[in-house]
Specification:
The structure is a single chain. By secondary structure, the protein is of the alpha/beta class. It contains 13 helices and eleven strands. It has helices spanning about 5-15, 20-25, 30-45, 60-85, 100-105, 125-135, 170-180, 185-190, 205-215, 230-235, 250-255, 285-295, 300-310; strands at about 50, 55-60, 95, 115-120, 140, 150-165, 195-200, 225, 240-245, 260, 270-275. Strands 3, 4, 5, 6, 9, 10 and 11 form a seven-stranded mixed beta sheet that branches. Strand 1 (about 50) and strand 2 form a beta hairpin. Helix 1 (about 5-15) crosses helix 4 (about 60-85) and helix 7 packs antiparallel against helix 8 (about 185-190). The longest helix is centred in the N-terminal third of the chain and has 26 residues, at about 60-85.
Length: about 325
């Protein structure tokens, strides 16, 4: 199936004469432009441009395709702009990606106050970073970092992966094994407990297990629920085990509804990054989003952010 973004990218290349200019016009990376063009050429089965010394020269088939789609693409762009602006002609639309719990715990209370339209995507971090590089997202919060020239990563906080349990879970056998640093006994005890996980996501549990026991867990969670917020509600004042980031359950730990079981033989900390393209027309809007997170999440690297801003990086 053809992706309509391929036509938009093709039109930009045709009109600007280069991959770089098309990337700047669309605010996506040059590799993203190349990917769209290669995908479209593979789909239509014909070469659309000859690469000249200074510009991309459309082939005869490229000219035919441009004449066939240019009016339709313009109409789609006009419709898109009208739809996103809605009743306010000056109101931009921002597309962001992050994990569901980060959105729910931090950003959700402020949505109605934002002076711009917001479209939020939840999913696998790598997929969201790829969408950012392709221009499908404007802003991502991620613990993962790729070396991509067009993308800017700004550290702003840290999360610690911890093992938690419901307040009624008996931990005596586990405490004995951990106190003498008997990893084999501790793992054996944990394998016998009732575990909670989230749909399609074993990353936290897997990383915690590999870090402490040097291998992947050899079990699947007993209960699969939609998200980590559901896990916390399910085990609060009950029994059950899970591995989740610490910032998601601070309140429940303080209230005694759940208990901290273990931080591991050595704690696992992930740096969280603000991720955006280096060239963006939404600097003001993204700065507002960043400010919300800086004020409402634990800030372990705020001085580094200020340094980056001062040096213009």
């Amino acid at each position: 199936m053809v992706n309509l973004e391929w036509f938009r990218t093709f039109k930009a290349i045709y009109e600007t004469g280069s991959l770089t200019s098309a990337a700047n016009k669309l605010y996506i990376s040059q590799p993203g432009v190349s990917l769209h063009l290669n995908s479209l050429e593979a789909h239509v089965g014909n070469k659309l441009f000859d690469r000249g010394t200074r510009k991309m020269l459309p082939t005869e088939y490229g000219n035919m395709l441009y004449n066939s789609i240019v009016d339709a693409v313009k109409k789609l762009e006009e419709a898109e702009g009208h739809f996103y602006r809605n009743a306010d002609s000056g109101r931009p639309s921002i597309s962001i990606g992050m994990c569901f719990e980060t959105f729910q715990y931090v950003l959700e209370p402020f949505i109605s106050e934002l002076p711009f339209n917001l479209i939020t995507k939840f999913g696998v971090y790598q997929d969201m970073l790829n969408d950012l590089d392709k221009g499908l997202l404007d802003f991502v919060i991620s613990p993962q970092k790729d070396e991509v020239f067009n993308i800017q990563y700004t550290p702003f906080s840290k999360e610690k992966l911890i093992l938690i349990a419901g307040s009624k879970s008996d931990l005596s056998g586990f405490r004995e094994a951990v106190n003498v640093r008997n990893a084999e006994a501790a793992e054996d005890w944990l394998n016998k407990q009732a575990w909670f996980g989230t749909t399609g996501d074993m990353e936290h549990l897997r990383n915690f297990w590999i870090h402490n026991f040097k291998k992947r867990p050899n079990f699947k969670p007993n209960y699969i629920v939609p998200n980590m917020s559901s896990i916390i509600r399910c085990i609060s004042d009950k029994e059950g085990f899970a591995v989740i980031p610490d910032f998601l359950c601070r309140k429940q730990l303080e209230e005694g509804n759940i208990q901290l079981v273990w931080e591991g033989f050595t704690p696992i900390e992930n740096t969280l990054y603000f991720v955006q393209r280096k060239k963006t027309i939404y600097k003001k809007e993204l700065a507002l989003l960043q400010d919300i997170f800086l004020k409402h999440m634990t800030i372990d690297v705020k001085d580094q952010i200020l340094l980056l801003q001062d040096t213009g990086r």
